[in-house]
Amino acid sequence: MDVLALLEAASLLPPHGTPTDNTLTADDLWDYLAHDQWEIALTLLEELRGTDPLPTGFWKSMAEAAEELRLERSRAWCWWRWGETRSGVLRAELTLRPAAETGRLLPVLGAGVLRPLWNVGNRAPDGGISLNIASLWVENALELPPGGTALVRLLPLTPSQWRHVAPGDVLTMHESAPVAGTATVLEVGPPVEPPLPAAGEGPR
User: Fold this and answer.
1) So what's the pLDDT on residue 55?
2) Enclosing domain of residue 31
């Protein structure tokens, strides 16, 4: 699968060999693409593109291309963005509690592996706190150590339970009884396409 052709078709790149004053060329980005850093490359291209969000089909094709090239983190990133087209974008600044407070000795892996519980203000039928699951992606970093702070993206398991979340809200992250971290919401965006994926699609 021709990655550069996919980028050109999505208006993320000019035709090869026709650079402009304010657009990165394929040559400028090839180093990122070749070294499994598609998160950086595609984010830069999206910022330059500056138009409507990219559709579900684009991210699916890019994920399949990354898989063919055996670029595991880039594959995971593209499937993550595929998920965001269905559930919406939720970015936050997350600070993990120190290891002495939580017992977590290892860093949180950055590529959407962890699916912690979050207190987003929902209540159970008995009036108690109802926690909600969301996967965690650490932006432009392989991991986040205990006590560290980073920009993150959250991908809710049940997006409808997160619709009230807005920039400025403070969410708490839970892995066990103690609070594991605190996240301040920075950005919330709506889904691009309907939230239910077609059969057979999605991360594998």
Assistant:
1) 85
2) 3-86
